Amino acid sequence: ADPDPLQDFCVADLNATVSLNGFPCKPVAEVTSDDFFFDGLSKEGNTDNPFGFAVAQGNVLSFPGLNTLGISMNRVDLAPRGINAPHSHPRATESIVVIKGKVLVGFVSTSNVYFYKVLTVGQMFVIPRGLIHFQYNVGHSKAILLTAFNSQLPGAVIVSRTLFASNPPIPNQILTKTFRVDDDVINSIKSKFA
Ligand code: GLV
Ligand code: MN
Fold first, then answer.
1. Is 14 domain-assigned?
2. In this structure, are 16 and 80 located in the same domain?
3. Domain encompassing residue 105
4. Is residue 41 part of a domain?
5. pLDDT value at position 20?
6. Pocket test for ligand 1, best of 147, 150, 159 (most atoms within 8 A of CB)
7. Helix, strand, coil percentages in the chain from 3-state DSSP, rounded to 5
8. Between 129 and which of 8, 22, 88, 93 could a Cys-Cys bridge form, CB atoms 3.0 to 4.6 Å apart?
9. Would you say the CB of residue 68 lies under 6 angstroms from ligand 1?
């Protein structure tokens, strides 16, 4: 989804003061093998939270060597019954491979059709760009997924956080009307994301 590069590489200078669609390049003479290496997906994430979920992101912000290359990857760790809650990526299609465990992955199309599969180790599923999707560990042990994106910075819109924990908050009258519930329901959900 990202634009094509105009040179072999353009390791991001994340501290540059100019801003553009991506990042300016650090000087070629200063680029080393380390710029093309990223160790951030090697460690197990801490899933000790209400979602039983952890994500490590290998995007241009954590791995500047990806700048202009149009790809990135995440590692997702899920405890048993852990969830990567419904979210979408505005700038990328996502492919998912299960590395460990048994995971239900699903997305909903713009026609409101739910597509899903239970994946075991080595199996792959694809989430079309922009569609809301989730992953849920249906196995009895920890699960690990690797996800790959055709963007250096796919972005993530997390539905629950977007609607119930924006800054400043979306007014309750919008949310009560949208979900056809009373204020107490909205307040209860908002309090859990505060
Ligand atoms: C999984 O859905 C991810 O965005 O890494
Ligand atoms: Mn995703």
1. yes
2. yes
3. 1-26+51-155
4. no
5. 87
6. 147
7. 20, 30, 50
8. 93
9. no
The pLDDT, as a whole number, for residue 58 is: 98
Take residue 26 and report the two structure tokens written for it: 């650090």
Same structural domain, 142 and 180:
no
Residue 133: give its domain's CATH number. 2.60.120.10
* Residue that has been written with the tokens 């490590």 in this structure: 56
> Rg of the Cα trace of the chain?
19
- Overall number of domains in the chain: 2
Q: What is the pLDDT of residues 1-55, one digit of tens each?
A: 899 999 999 999 999 999 889 999 999 999 999 999 999 999 999 999 999 999 9
User: How sure is the predictor about 75, in pLDDT bands with cuts at 50, 70 and 90?
Assistant: very high
Ligand 1 probe mutation, 93, 94, 124, 134, most atoms within 8 A of CB = 94
Task: Give me the pLDDT at residue 19, please.
Answer: 85
| Secondary element (H or E) of residue 193 | helix 183-193
Judge if the beta carbon of residue 57 lies within 6 A of ligand 1: no
DSSP string, 154-169: ---EEHHHHHHS-SSP
C-alpha 176/C-alpha 187 separation (Å) is: 10
pLDDT tens per residue, range 98-145? 999 999 999 999 999 999 999 999 999 999 999 999 999 999 999 999
- Closest-lying ligand 1 atom to the alpha carbon of residue 105: 2
Q: 143 and 180 share a domain?
A: no
ipTM above 0.90, yes or no: yes
My answer on whether 100 and 185 are in the same domain is no
Q: 123 and 90, same structural domain?
A: yes
